[in-house]
Write a structure and sequence with these properties.
With 208 residues, the chain is α/β, with parallel strands linked by helices. The chain has helices at residues 15-26, 41-46, 48-72, 83-96, 102-116, 132-142, 152-167, 188-207; strands spanning 4-9, 29-31, 77-80, 124-129, 173-178. It is built from eight helices and five strands, in the order E-H-E-H-H-E-H-H-E-H-H-E-H. The relative contact order is 0.20.
Length: 208
Amino acid sequence: MIKHVAVAGNIGAGKTTLCTQLAKSFGWEVHYESTKDNPYLSDFYEDMQRWSFNLQIYFLNSRYKQILEIQSGDKTIIQDRSIYEDAHIFAPNLHDMGLMSTRDFENYIDLFNTMCSQINPPDLMIYLKASIPTLVDHIQQRGRDYEGSMSLDYLKRLNARYEEWIDGYKEGRLLVINADEVDFHNNPESLSNVINQVQAETHGLFEG
């Protein structure tokens, strides 16, 4: 039985919306990314260098606990962002920008590798591929205060890392959806098309 679907994508790609819609369509449960109760997020956007390691450890631990719960349960869960994005996108980007020390980064990666040795990858990874204008539009629409200081350069750096990661993704089944061409909120036909793509990907997994 398929247990674990993960939705990956840059900030503002539409992951949460897609998770909600797919869960509703397929009768899955959602494990959302913990942003509202995250004690570091607003501080991080005010002072990235001071809080980068704390924030990344919080996210890593949160997603690891989610995966352990998914693997020990008997339900199909769709996860808003994957544990791989923490280690392949956000932490190395912060390190390269000089916002996380090499000592902290190496400690972080070592912890990530230990965690990954204890878990299985998602049965299906869905990647929402989005251009910078689409990301900016979505971020402005939702109006989160702590995202107001985010720079275009930061988003561009993350997008480049996402493309590199997805190009080399070999952990399991992968479905890429162009977020520039879909509107989950206002276009039922667009959403239906995405649901059909996910259905095609998961059908073989369910049958297996």
